[in-house]
Amino acid sequence: MLIEVEDRLLVLIHAAGHFYALDDVCTHDGGPLSDGPVDGQDGTIACPRHGAKFDVSSGAAKTMPATKPTVAHEVKVDGDQVLVRLNEE
């Protein structure tokens, strides 16, 4: 799901019972990660443009053509609210 936090676009991911938030940008070519598929088995989200995969918990680039991580943000669930704290990496 695409969300905006303090004028920053993030992809909010719910996988394997946990919530994760990443910058909504592929570090390879700027593609929108929110348009890509999530693989709950290996914990990745793929860029829809060229297939680069990123770890949903850390933002680490897992496959080429991406070589740099995207920024991961802290997520906390409080009742029925999902709270995101931005990380300025």
What does this structure look like?
The chain contains no helices and eight strands. The model has no long low-confidence stretch (mean pLDDT 96). Helix content is 0%, strand content 43%. Strands 1-2-3-7-8 form a five-stranded antiparallel β-sheet, with no helix packed on it. A three-stranded antiparallel β-sheet has the order 4-5-6, with no helix packed on it. The chain has one domain: 3-layer Sandwich (Rieske Iron-sulfur Protein), CATH 2.102.10. It is an all-beta fold.
Radius of gyration: 12 Å
* Largest sheet descriptor: 5 strands, antiparallel
* Portion in strands: 35-45%
Overall pLDDT:
96
Work out the count of structural domains: 1
Estimate percent helicity.
under 10%
Structural class by sheet pairing and helices: mainly beta
Distance between the termini: 22 Å
Keywords, separated by commas or semicolons:
five-stranded antiparallel β-sheet, three-stranded antiparallel β-sheet, Rieske Iron-sulfur Protein, 0% helix, mainly beta, single chain, 89 residues
